[in-house]
Design goal:
Elements (H helix, E strand, L loop, with lengths): L7 H24 L3 H21 L3 H26 L13 H23 L9 H7 L2 H8 L4 H26 L1
């Protein structure tokens, strides 16, 4: 599908709506007490980020976002949550602890940094040409890079992920026995 034929106003509306959904879903993710609900909100965040990547002409990253993060990683997270059988611990509401103060301070610093970056570009963010963006994010260019220049690091990463998965299964089996 050629995204260049879609009306730019419609793309901005889709981009803005996906951004709002991503922000709301991420806020819902961090405010839920049940870890399963948090994981489900994280999946919504991943899907909305995939839509944002599509509007930015990064088709490969959008597909990888859905397949790797929303699919594999989230299933692994949900499997681990079920495996360790988390119990919901009731805490006292309204109690201000040191962790909450530190978290609030870090949050304020993060928002100040985001504001500083947004206001550091007086004419807006630097613009890239649509042709260059389509070339960089296309599946063909990513496949050529992954299976050409970056084949060895790609294979090493896959072996490391496999070793981590086998290690997690071995550790889980030892606890059950």
């Amino acid at each position: 599908m050629d995204l260049g034929l879609i009306d730019p106003l419609f793309r901005w509306v889709v981009f803005g709506a996906s951004g709002i959904v991503a922000v709301v879903a991420s806020l819902m993710m961090v405010t839920r007490r049940d870890p399963i609900h948090s994981a489900l909100w994280l999946i919504v965040t991943f899907f909305s980020l995939a839509v944002i990547y599509l509007t930015l002409h990064a088709q490969f990253i959008a597909v990888a976002q859905v397949m790797v993060y929303a699919g594999a990683i989230m299933m692994l997270i949900i499997f681990v949550i079920m495996l360790i059988q988390l119990e919901i611990v009731s805490t006292r509401k309204g109690r201000i602890t040191g962790g909450k103060i530190i978290g609030g301070f870090i949050t304020v610093i993060l928002f100040l940094e985001i504001g500083a970056v947004l206001f550091s570009f007086p004419g807006g963010a630097p613009k890239a040409s649509a042709e260059r963006a389509a070339q960089i994010g296309s599946v063909a260019s990513m496949g050529t890079a992954l299976y050409g220049k970056y084949l060895f690091p790609f294979e090493i990463a896959s072996v490391l992920l496999l070793v981590g998965l086998v290690g997690a299964v071995v550790l889980a089996r030892r606890r059950q026995e």
